[in-house]
Structure formats: structure tokens, C-alpha cells
Write a structure and sequence with these properties.
Elements lengths: L22 E6 L3 H17 L7 E6 L4 H11 L5 E9 L5 H20 L2 E9 L2 H6 L1 E3 L2 E2 H32 L16
Parallel strand pairs: 1-2, 1-3, 3-4
Antiparallel strand pairs: 5-6
Helix pairs in contact: 1-5, 2-3
Length: about 190
């Protein structure tokens, strides 16, 4: 599995080349009927916003817990601007689903805070398969679509903040040492 983001841009003049930067999608194979629909929703949202198949990496992992491992790897690699995590946990006879959901949620939250990489959270937790399917393109929407949209919007907001910080830092750099004293103002010079 190649985890490297695309290294060359699409063909010059390609209208998609101005779309979102490279995004990685991690999808759990467990509950594949549900997660396949989440993936379809995430891809459709990325393409709708001007992304291209070329700049979308899709990585499969066995289950929801493994989303965290792959997200950790992908956020440390240069080039991926967001990571979307898609999975499905359906309630069983024990609290296993709750433990996994909590571990995945907390790990992904910490990971995005530490790395500054937007992470789209598309982990469905449902009591029944029917509830899960309703949230994977059914009458409750598609959490894959929602996770992609949230990550792309977060990525844009982060870019605005970074640009503002760079502009402020550039302005501060130009004032290092301060301006020449104004000898016409009181206290402005000798």
C-alpha cells in the first residue's frame, strides 16, 4: 500500500487542479456494506468541491480501531492536507462498541490537535444495522459526505488562520529594529 500523496499535479489546464489539495480517506472493511456507502459519499463530496480522483488517496484497514493507527501514519507524512476516517460500530451484546468508539474518538481528537491536520470523523455508532444504513446514504444522510465536508471546511479555516499569522509575522519582521526616530515629535529623538 503506497501511502505517499500524489507528487505531480494533474495535467495543466485541468479544471480540477484548483480544487482541494490531496486528502486521504481511511475506511474500515468491517461492516463493509455501510462503510462502502460512507466512502462513496466522501468521494462524491470531494469531487463535487472540485477535487480529482488523482488527489484522493483511499486506504483500507480491518476495523474501526485501526483507523487510529493509519491516521497517525498519514498525518505524519507530508502532503496529505486532511485525513477522513470512516467506520461503523454496531451495538452487540457487550460494551465492546462503546470502548472502541471512545478510544477512536479520543485518539483522533488528540491527533488532529497535535498535528494541525484536519481529520474528518465519519465513525457511525448504531444500535442496529438498519440505523447504520440510514446514516450511510439513507434517510438520515451520509456521514461520509458530512465527514469530508467538515474536514474540507476546517482545512480552509486553518489556511485562513495560517495566512493571517504569516501576514502578521511578516509585518512584525519588517518593523524589527523599529522605524527611525521621528525628531519632530516630543520624545522622538535627540
Amino acid at each position: 500500500m503506497d501511502t505517499t500523496p500524489p507528487s505531480t499535479p494533474p495535467t495543466p489546464g485541468d479544471p480540477n487542479s484548483m480544487g482541494p489539495p490531496p486528502v486521504a480517506v481511511i475506511v474500515s472493511q468491517y461492516n463493509g456494506e455501510v462503510t462502502g456507502r460512507l466512502l462513496a459519499g466522501a468521494k462524491a463530496e470531494y469531487l463535487r468541491r472540485g477535487g480529482s480522483e488523482w488527489s484522493l488517496g483511499v486506504f483500507e484497514v480491518p476495523g474501526a480501531f485501526e483507523l487510529t493507527t493509519m491516521a497517525g501514519v498519514l498525518t505524519r507524512l507530508k502532503g496529505w492536507h486532511a485525513v477522513i476516517c470512516l467506520g461503523c460500530l454496531i451495538k452487540g451484546e457487550t460494551k465492546h462498541d462503546e470502548y472502541i468508539a471512545s478510544a477512536v474518538t479520543n485518539t483522533l481528537a488528540g491527533l488532529t490537535a497535535r498535528t494541525g491536520i484536519a481529520i474528518g470523523y465519519g465513525l457511525i455508532t448504531a444500535n442496529t444495522p438498519e440505523q447504520a444504513l440510514a446514516r450511510a446514504g439513507g434517510d438520515k444522510g451520509n456521514k461520509g459526505t458530512d465527514a469530508m465536508a467538515a474536514a474540507l471546511e476546517t482545512m480552509k479555516a486553518m489556511a485562513v488562520v495560517r495566512q493571517g499569522a504569516e501576514a502578521r509575522n511578516a509585518g512584525a519582521q519588517s518593523r524589527v529594529g523599529g522605524p527611525s526616530p521621528d525628531k519632530t515629535r516630543p520624545g522622538g529623538g535627540v
